[in-house]
Specification:
single chain; 354 residues; alpha/beta; eight-stranded mixed β-sheet; 14 helices; 12 strands
Length: 354
């Protein structure tokens, strides 16, 4: 691989994203090491391979799976690149683990949501950190050794994977990493990682919390009129916070930020445009796609709310901006985490009750 040293591809975090990407790279002929802390998942992959279910069909891929306790085996192992795919609240220790065992020259790609590059760079170094964004993946782990993608191949409406250097320049290693991911779905190098990050964060916060609170699939959240209204309000608030922080998002689901903001304010023409854009997203999705927040809450494990709606709410407050929809969603998700509320449409109805 021009731009990268010879060696294996390491993915720390064998959740839905890590497993899907790892399987795709292995299917393309790369030597892959998938490291995860779920023993049943690791054992299933070792015994039967990793089953990949997509709208296009089902396949089984063989790849090397390690338990977290095996991470020391990275010492001295030739590695071309490492992808960080853990939950956002696990970023600090996971990055430190890679810093401990990987050769100092190995690039580390943050294939996660939200803005975590600074946290990773503090552990592994700024010079070896790259940002990776996956859009339109819509993946979940329904069982050990099984990963399912609800979105269709190439259905994101743009590049599914985007890879960027923190300094914004195009480098051979960024191009090589984008080429790796391009064997799974469309990929490109971005020269504006931070705008891409905020765009993806906005898109995530529009739907993941709505799905998590209601139990609705992502297809339903994108496609049903009541949640389209709520998603539009969330988009308008997140775009306003982003603009205050200096993120100039050119378009969201093909529409300019002003369209989302006017739609949230009740402009009928803009409402029709945003609903059509969200409905197009729904049309490309399988009916059983679950948001990450719904998966977390259903499994009674911590959600990433503090990096999504909670983060937007906190940044909005810091900028003196009103972001009531994000703040309320974060409040409701935390109540579900504490067991005070259940996952149901009635819980989501509380969003509009205040």
């Amino acid at each position: 691989m021009s731009g990268l040293a010879a060696g294996r591809i390491v993915l720390l975090g064998g959740g839905a994203v890590g497993s899907f990407v790892g399987a795709g790279l292995a299917a393309a002929g790369h030597e892959v090491v998938l490291i995860d802390g779920w023993p049943e998942h690791v054992r299933a992959i070792r015994a039967e391979g990793l089953t990949v279910e997509t709208p296009e069909g089902t396949s089984c891929v063989r790849l090397e799976a390690w338990d977290l306790n095996d991470a020391y085996r990275l010492r001295g192992l030739p590695v071309a690149a490492a992808f960080l795919c853990v939950k956002l609240y696990d970023t600090a220790w996971a990055a430190a683990l890679l810093a401990t065992w990987l050769d100092p020259a190995v690039p580390v790609v943050t294939l996660q949501n939200a803005l975590v590059e600074e946290q990773v760079a503090r552990a592994v170094g700024w010079g070896r950190t790259l940002g990776g964004i996956g859009s339109g993946l819509n993946v979940l782990l329904p069982a050990p050794g099984v990963v399912r993608r609800a979105g269709q191949h190439g259905a994101a409406g743009g590049k599914v994977f985007k890879v960027g250097e923190l300094h914004g320049r195009v480098t051979p290693r960024a191009e090589a990493i984008a080429a790796l991911l391009g064997s799974i779905d469309s990929a490109a190098v971005t020269t504006d990682l931070w705008t891409e990050r905020w765009t993806k964060l906005t898109a995530n916060t529009m739907t993941t919390g709505l799905s998590g609170l209601s139990g609705l699939s992502l297809k339903a959240v994108y496609g049903e009129a009541p949640t389209q209204v709520q998603a539009t309000r969330l988009a308008a608030e997140a775009l306003a916070v982003g603009a205050a922080l200096g993120f100039r998002v050119p378009a969201l689901f093909g529409l300019a930020p002003t369209v989302w903001q006017r739609a949230a304010a009740g402009d009928a023409t803009c409402v029709a445009e945003t609903q059509a854009a969200l409905s197009r997203q729904a049309a490309s999705m399988a009916p059983d796609g679950m948001s990450g927040t719904l998966q977390d809450l259903s499994k009674r494990r911590p959600s990433e709310v503090d990096f999504f709606n909670g983060f937007i709410a906190a940044e909005g407050a810091r900028q003196g901006l009103a972001v009531p929809t994000h703040a309320r969603i974060a409040e409701l998700i935390r109540a579900v985490e504490r067991g005070e509320l259940g996952i149901a449409p009635a819980t989501l109805a509380r969003l509009d009750a205040r």
